[in-house]
Design goal:
single chain; alpha+beta; five-stranded antiparallel beta sheet; 5 strands; elongated
Length: 179
């Protein structure tokens, strides 16, 4: 198989399996199934092995996705049960992607819009605060600890730890904040 054919098969394994079934049943109207069968016969074992591996990979991916969903639910439950500890995740643009229940209790009076920008919401600033630990953690890839004053309806002093989160390629793409 050419790399392009292999790529197409991997991208749409169900379509490929359906195609093979139609060929085997000789129900393909627009294709001479006899010539296709003859051309594929000498590679039938290879194709069957490819289909078997693709099905196995699809099952494994489904199991991994289910496990990831279960793990995520468990972690969210644990983080949401923390009292007195703010936990949040920011992206590279300092948008608040997620916060635990305690963080939302803390900022509830602000009526936070979806994907609010941290420095705009808490400090009414257009740029990240000078010395911002989250910003430094995103830039340096190192854990940063900071003392900060949140400008909520009631000023609140916090000690916040900022942990850079990396994607599968090892690139920092988010920061976990807790304090």
């Amino acid at each position: 198989l050419t790399p392009r054919v292999t790529q197409l098969i991997k991208a749409n394994p169900e379509d490929f399996v359906d195609f093979l079934r139609r060929i085997e049943s000789k129900s393909v109207d627009t294709v001479n199934s006899y010539s296709i069968n003859a051309a594929l016969e000498h590679r039938k074992g290879e194709l069957e092995e490819l289909v078997r591996r693709l099905r196995q990979e699809m099952r494994r991916n489904k199991e991994l996705e289910q496990k990831r969903t279960e793990d995520e639910h468990q972690w969210r439950s644990i983080l949401n049960s923390l009292r007195g500890i703010y936990v949040g995740i920011l992206d590279l643009d300092m948008r608040i992607l997620w916060g635990n229940d305690e963080s939302y209790r803390l900022i509830k009076p602000l009526e936070m819009p979806p994907l609010a920008v941290c420095h705009q919401l808490f400090h009414n600033r257009s740029e990240p605060c000078s010395g911002c630990g989250a910003f430094r953690a995103l830039e340096t890839g190192c854990v940063e600890v900071e003392h900060t004053m949140q400008c909520l309806p009631v000023p609140l002093k916090l000690l916040i730890t900022n942990v850079p989160l990396r994607n599968d390629d090892g690139v920092v793409h988010q920061v976990l904040r807790f304090g």
